[in-house]
Amino acid sequence: MFRILRINKLIINRLLNRLVAWRIAKIPERNFLYLLSLIVGLLSGLAALLLKNLIHFVAEELTQMISVEGFTYLYLLYPFIGILLTVLFVRYVIRDDIGHGVSKILYSISKKSSKLKPHKTYSSMIASSLTIGFGGSVGSEAPIVLTGASIGSNLARIFKLRYKYITLMVGCGAAGAIAGIFNAPMAGIVFTLEVLMLDLTMAYLIPLLISAVAATVISYFFMGEGVMLHFSQVTPFDISMIWIYILVGIFTGLLGIYFTRGTMFLEKRFAAINNWFVRVVIGAVSLGILIFIFPPLWGEGYESINSVFNNQGADLLNNSMFFQWKDNPYVILLVLAGILIFKVLAMSATTGSGGNGGIFAPTLFTGAIAGYFLVKLLNTFFNLGVPENNFALAGMAGMMAAVMHAPLTGIFLTAEITGGYGLFIPLLITSTVAYVTIMRFEPHSIYTKRLAESGELITHHKDKAILRSMEVKKMIENDFAIISPDATLGDLVKAISKSNRNLFPIVDEEGYLKGMVKLSKVKNLIFEHELYDTVMVKDLMFMPEFYISSKDNMETVAKKFETSNRYNLAVIDDGKYLGFISRAIVFSNYRKTLEYFSNE
To answer: Which GO CC annotations does the UniProt entry carry (predicted)?
Structure first.
């Protein structure tokens, strides 16, 4: 059987190689990129459609047994089942970490040449549908973005594209996923450019546009207007209410700090629990209790957002112990405050215990509740009479700007949800204020903070990306004449006459570097023939003040060149001499790598 599988694999590889050869011979590279971006967009749109329906099916089947007018103990059971099934699937079927989808994409671009494992084209979809369908308080966007990016990465690798085009297809998959979920092509493009930090050039923009539009067409074809969020603007923007939008921006900016730091802190606490089953139990029980008290924490929360959009915020008390007080504005405010505080714990309990999902939907949910809460508070105590749903929409934009450091994504996504740009100015104001507020305290988004702390974030710094892609071992030069410590000045002069270098490493029989001799330091002795047999090399050598290891990254090498002002640095591993790296070689390789990274 294994022989048959091996033969089939060889046949498939031959067919793929022939297909690649035909593509290279017959289709211009740019045209092929447009075609491939279309395919990636269609597949990403179908994946988004499949995941939405899968989550909806599971959730609908479960919530049919839940009464609107009372609370149910099933809220305590369902999250445990979903998280346990997810953990078992990941541990024993996938056997790989598939959490934090967007961070995984950024890491793959930074450290893995944009290569994503093939199983990520489906594994995160299955895992997140189990988690979210059973009430996990996370979103499906990060898993589907990871799915789309993986589709793009693997298709690009099948057709043997270069790194920069594999990265482009990763972006096309991400753009298609966001566009397909929200019927929002511009939001998909902007998200990819802003969060994944792909370059804004025509070479990249056109494929992203093709992919996003293709995914949106798929979504419209199968779902029509049945998107997860829909906002109908009834009350137009009033210039006199700008100050409230500024307040919403400040509030969501500060809330974003709590959201980011709270999530990071709680996930680290869960990660410290060594026993996976204990971790599942603690997380699932915590989540179940929170959903039992605050039912809007169930799942992605889009139904709650739609309730707020329709000025039916009191419906957030349905299925809860607070149902009998749903007409009391003060109780509503207390429940809203509780939801804002405990959403972070519910989300962290879901992901920290092993559930699969992202922070995109929780960010939108928290932003909508935050905007609605703040304005309801002002209306209740100051009787302003302003439309609360408009500010819920602005709160979403502000929260996205704060948590994701993506103000443009927040603006365009919320604008596309409205079906127009009637609230574009207040969205712009709120997003800008929220972004400026959080940047004072948090230089990294929740997506990049983990990578930045471990020194693995280079997607947002092209210079670092180029340096990290260069390898020290490939630039070591070995054409330096090696001298023994027991050699004489005469031996050194012979080596000088045959060498084109002005540095001479002194290395013992075991390969350990004992020192170096510079030609400039001994040139006056070259003509002193009477000293050839009496002066020893070990009396002329010196140990280099600056040197590097073959294990150092190129950032370290570049800093050593800058601080030492040397043109050559010795490469020494555990005292053993390997060769030299020259400033000229580093600069030449940097230029070649920059050309490789270039998009045009």
So the answer is: chloride channel complex
